[in-house]
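Deliverable D2.4 — example input (structure tokens):
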């Protein structure tokens, strides 16, 4: 399975996932028979000591790395069944990755950085421009489109990186310590943005953080220690203003009302002004 609407059910399923890194004769066991379900539209925070395997989990979920054992199923796709071209297509359709250090290309403007993932799609130049402007507008940086990364603050750079992550309208946002390099106010802005993408647009978010206050923004906090999930704190949180389309895809309608998705546009989108779906 390489595309189509994601199946109903968890957006992420890890089943018996182990990861052992090998460096020559030395084995580094990282994850041990991990099981994890993340619901569609859920905001999950992942915590744990340095070296416990948090980034490894994000890399497995994004199809950047492969498990030594077990299955990784994301948006209904068993990643173990995909070849490298299939994985690239999967990533471009379903995953928006946000890094601690932003990873913007310094010689490209904010607009061009956000446009990059769209160069892999068959959108026209005009359509790409519309999507880039919508994404930058969503993160509040419409007035910084022609700025280069060095002309932006750290918080603004991270918001450009978030725009780049959402411009393809992915199913899942994966954030690896997204506020790790930011001051308190910029961190709050970025967390507010992630929460808005989750609550308003029904995006599933998996965020690794060392900051307990940042983790508080999530629906659920999982702690990873010595390769296993050792603690789970689940609280009552506001759920996304979303309903489900017939394909099982969360879908956000204007004013919080549910609205059917058209057959040609079965995923939530920032780009359909009438119903966002
Ligand atoms: N490519 C690799 N080859 C060998 N070992 C690796 C590789 N990538 C990660 N590791 C090891 O796997 C373990 C888990 O790494 P990982 O980056 O997932 O930790 P982390 O929980 O994200 O830590 P941090 O909080 O410091 O970012 C570490 O001991 C690390 O040294
Ligand atoms: Mg890490």
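Example output (designed residues):
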């Amino acid at each position: 399975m390489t595309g189509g609407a994601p199946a109903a059910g968890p957006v992420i399923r890890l089943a018996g996932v182990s990861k052992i890194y090998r460096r020559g004769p030395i084995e580094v066991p990282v994850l041990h028979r991990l099981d994890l379900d993340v619901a569609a539209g859920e905001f999950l925070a992942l915590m744990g000591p340095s070296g416990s395997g948090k980034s490894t989990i994000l890399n497995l979920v994004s199809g950047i790395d492969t498990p030594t054992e077990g299955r990784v199923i994301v948006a209904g796709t068993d990643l173990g069944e995909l070849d490298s071209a299939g994985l690239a297509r999967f990533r471009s359709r379903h995953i928006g990755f946000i890094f601690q250090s932003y990873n913007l290309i310094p010689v490209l403007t904010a607009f061009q950085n956000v446009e990059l993932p769209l160069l892999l799609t068959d959108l026209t130049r005009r359509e790409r421009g519309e999507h880039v402007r919508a994404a930058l507008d969503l993160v509040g940086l419409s007035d910084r489109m022609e700025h280069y990364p060095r002309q932006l603050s750290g918080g603004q750079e991270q918001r450009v990186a978030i725009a780049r992550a959402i411009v393809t309208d992915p199913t899942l946002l994966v954030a690896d310590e997204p506020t790790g390099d930011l001051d308190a106010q910029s961190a709050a802005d970025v967390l507010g943005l992630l929460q808005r993408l989750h609550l308003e647009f029904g995006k599933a978010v998996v965020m690794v953080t060392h900051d307990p206050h940042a983790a508080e923004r999530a629906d659920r906090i999982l702690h990873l220690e010595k390769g296993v999930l050792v603690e789970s704190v689940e609280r009552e949180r506001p759920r996304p203003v979303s309903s489900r389309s017939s394909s099982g895809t969360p879908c956000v309608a204007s004013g919080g009302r549910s609205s059917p998705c058209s057959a040609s546009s079965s995923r939530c989108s920032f780009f359909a002004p009438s119903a966002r779906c």
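Helices lie at 54-61, 84-94, 110-115, 125-138, 154-166, 184-199, 212-215.
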